[in-house]
Amino acid sequence: QVQLVESGGGLVQAGGSLRLSCAVSGRTFSYYVMGWFRQAPGKEREFVAAISWTGGSTYYADSVKGRFTISRDNAKNTVYLQMNSLNPEDTAVYYCATPRARLRAAGSLPSQYDYWGQGTQVTVSS
Q1: If you count Cβ atoms within 10 Å of the first and of the last residue's Cβ in the chain, which end, N or C, has fewer?
Q2: Which DSSP letter does residue 86 get?
Q3: How many helices (H) and strands (E) does the chain have?
């Protein structure tokens, strides 16, 4: 079955950086869109970033544009989220996700993704 495992979360001071990784198994990774979402306590899960199956197209939420970078290494079956200039509003559990179908473009709605990782906590202190 398809499995997604995130890593790289932790505690960081405001202005700092973290890089999240998501390793995927159980399917041909390079065929599928990958996305990152986050969920803060008491809030709905929200889109952060997504990347096309080739890696040629990337998409970002306005709140992270210019600070976060999504990338993928199809040889390693891994997608990354480089997060710079972190602020306390970025504190959340971060999830990677992928759709069941092969899509030409990445979506920004959680309902468009079928497989999810368990999440990794990112905490940014002020």
Answers
A1: N
A2: -
A3: 0, 11
Give the Cα separation of 57 and 104 in Å (integer): 10
pLDDT tens, position by position, 2-26:
999 999 999 999 999 999 999 999 9
> At CA 94, angle to CA 19 and CA 41, rounded to 5?
135
- For 114, counting Cβ atoms within 10 Å of its Cβ (0-12 exposed, 13-18 middle, 19+ buried), the class is exposed
Which position has the token pair 């197209």? 57
DSSP-assigned letters across all residues of 1-16: --EEEEE--EEEETT-
Whole-angstrom CA distances from 15 to 60, 80, 90, 95, 120 are 19, 19, 11, 21, 19
- Residue 65 — φ and ψ, nearest 5°? -60, 130
